[in-house]
Design a protein that fits this description.
alpha+beta; Aminopeptidase; 2 domains; seven-stranded mixed sheet; 12 helices; 27% strand
Length: 320
C-alpha cells in the first residue's frame, strides 16, 4: 500500500495515467493527471484557504485520489468544478475496497463525493452496494459527455448523420480563401497569445462573458496546455484568412481519444460557417491520426446532431 503526498503523486503521474488509459467506463481525458491537476490548482488558488489535505492511495495499480480543501472531513475529486474526473482508478472492486479501508476506516469524520461515475457501470454498482452495509448513499446527475465514434473513420461517421446534416456539410463554403493550419507543435505561450487575440474579437469578450476573462480560467488553460504540450498531446488548429488568424479549435489527446476544450472565431467570419468547418476538419484529421473517439464535452442540443452517443455520468455521495 502506498500513501502518497501530492508531490509524490505528481512524480508518479505516468503510472497513474497508464491506469486511467486502461480503465473503461470513465471520461479518460478528464480523469487523467493533466486535467485533474490543472483543475486542482485552479480551485486551490481560488479558495485561498491554506494547504488542502490529500487522500491519495495506490495498491497494485489501483488508485483513489481525493482532496479535502477545507479540512472538514469532506473529500472531493481533484477536479470538482465540472465533476468529469473519476477519483477511483483501476479495478472497481479493488478501488471500493481501497475506499473502505483507507478512507472510511482511517479518516475522521468522513464523507466522499465521487464524480465521473458512468451510470449503470460496474463502479456505479459497486458503490451503490455500500449503501446496503451501513453507509449513507446518495447519487445525483452529473455532466454527461457527447461522443463521436471514429473507429470506422470519418466517412462512416458522416454517413451516420442525418440527410439534413450531410446536405449542410456539402453546402459549406470551400473557396473563400480560409485555410486550416495545424499549430500543435508551436509553444504553448505562442498558441495562447494567438487564442487570446481571437477571443478579444468575439461578441462574448465585448459582453464581458468570455471564459478567458476570468483569471482562474486563464491559469487553468495555460497550465493544461503546457502539460499537454510537454506530453505531445496538445492539439490546436487555426483558421486563417489572408494570413490572419480568424478562428481556432483547441483540444487534447489521451488514450487514443480526442477531447475538445475550446473553439471560437472572430465576428467577421461568422457567416462563413467557420465553426462547423473547423469541427469537421478536426474530426477528419483525428480519424486520419487513428483516434477511436472524439469527446465533444458536456451535453448541448446542437451536439446531438454530431454525436453518436451520450455517456451519462453520476456523482455519488457516501457518508459514514
Amino acid at each position: 500500500m502506498n500513501h502518497l503526498s501530492f508531490p509524490e503523486f505528481l512524480s508518479r503521474r505516468e503510472a497513474f495515467d497508464a491506469a486511467v488509459a486502461a480503465q473503461d467506463e470513465i471520461a479518460k481525458f478528464c480523469s487523467s493527471s493533466s486535467w485533474m491537476c490543472a483543475a486542482n490548482g485552479l480551485l486551490h488558488a481560488s479558495e485561498g484557504e491554506g494547504e488542502p489535505e490529500y487522500c491519495i492511495r495506490e495498491h497494485d495499480g489501483n488508485w483513489i485520489v481525493f482532496v479535502d480543501r477545507q479540512r472538514r472531513g469532506i473529500w472531493f475529486p481533484l477536479e470538482s468544478a465540472w465533476m468529469f474526473d473519476c477519483p477511483m482508478i483501476g479495478e472497481p472492486a479493488e478501488c471500493v475496497e481501497l475506499l473502505k479501508q483507507e478512507g472510511f476506516a482511517t479518516l475522521q469524520p468522513t464523507g466522499f463525493c465521487i464524480g465521473g461515475v458512468r451510470k449503470e457501470g460496474e463502479l456505479h454498482r459497486r458503490l451503490e452496494s455500500l449503501g446496503e452495509v451501513g453507509l449513507r448513499y446518495e447519487e445525483f446527475p452529473a455532466t454527461d459527455c457527447m461522443i463521436i465514434e471514429l473507429w470506422s473513420g470519418y466517412e462512416a461517421w458522416l454517413e451516420r448523420r442525418s440527410r439534413k446534416f450531410r446536405k449542410s456539410v456539402r453546402q459549406l463554403p470551400v473557396d473563400d480563401g480560409i485555410e486550416m493550419v495545424d499549430a500543435s507543435g508551436e509553444s504553448p505561450e505562442v498558441i495562447f497569445r494567438r487564442i487570446l487575440a481571437i477571443q478579444q474579437r468575439t461578441y462574448k469578450w465585448q459582453e464581458g462573458s468570455d471564459i478567458f476573462q476570468g483569471e482562474d480560467y486563464l491559469l487553468f488553460y495555460r497550465y493544461l496546455m503546457e502539460t499537454l504540450s510537454e506530453a505531445g498531446r496538445l492539439r490546436v488548429m487555426f483558421a486563417q484568412q489572408d494570413g490572419e488568424d480568424v478562428a481556432y479549435i483547441l483540444g487534447g489527446e489521451f488514450a487514443n481519444q480526442y477531447r475538445g476544450l475550446q473553439m471560437s472565431y472572430v465576428e467577421s467570419v461568422r457567416s462563413s460557417g467557420i465553426g462547423n468547418r473547423l469541427q469537421l476538419e478536426n474530426i477528419s484529421r483525428c480519424a486520419e491520426a487513428g483516434m477511436e473517439a472524439y469527446d465533444l464535452g458536456m451535453h448541448s442540443e446542437y451536439k446531438e446532431r454530431w454525436a453518436d452517443r451520450q455517456d451519462a455520468y453520476i456523482t455519488v455521495f457516501l457518508v459514514l
